[in-house]
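Re: 3-methyl-2-oxobutanoic acid structure - here you go.
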Amino acid sequence: MSTTQKNITVDARPKRQATAKNIAAMKGTTPIVCLTAYITPMAARLDKHCDLLLVGDSVGMVLYGMDSTLGVDLEMMIRHGRAVCRGAEQALVVIDLPFGTYEESKEQAFRNAARALSETGAGAVKLEGGREMAETVRFLSTRGIPVLGHVGLMPQSVHAHGGYAARGRSVDEWQPIIDDAIAIAEAGAFAVVLEGVAEPLARKVTEAVPCPVIGIGASNACDGQILVTEDMLGLFAINPKFVKRFAEIGRDIEAAIGGYAEEVRSRAFPAEEHTYKMRGSNS
Ligand code: KIV
């Protein structure tokens, strides 16, 4: 329902943006739908379909051509976080804390997480790490900063791990990952991203922790799923096994640009209908 005041149409329904609490309460109910977003028009399109939009540090690779997420800084995250918040009305917006902005101390983490929230309008932050980050997660979440954890394959540790291979493909790798997820959940994370692990481990982690587990490359056993939007739209060249391409927009863009180039060269574009006439002219 809407009312009109002084020629301005006002939507009478209050806009309800999801909170970290709402997402936490979805454990064991409906699967949680999450995607990454970096810019306003994409966020506006994703918003009505998603429970959570992550301004991921994958922005460095997807939009800036970096070869890992390690070069992303807090200023970039804040700039893209603001852009996403302008487009999102319903989904919870979560800002990834970039490498080097939270690992040194819980105070450093608080300072930078507080900036990420207060300068963007987002509702939570994400950080990578297991047991070693539990104290930091507790420090933030007891001081008003909802935290989304991230365990399993952690892209910010690419050098320490020696690559992006899936984890937990042999049973002896399971316990540390289960312990990491439990530690982060018990420290107060409202949900945990579980990346790049074999299916039976994902099931065990999802059963073991009280908060929602959001999988990426972690099977259907999780409480929800997240993908990098550009991956699932076919806009990013790398196509890992866990990504299903729901569209081939990269191919469509190339076809459209090819058409434009051809029409400019043949002078078919701009046509009459794209051309301004003098005022008073009939045609
Ligand atoms: O940065 C990112 O996009 C992420 C998701 C892939 C979970 O961390």
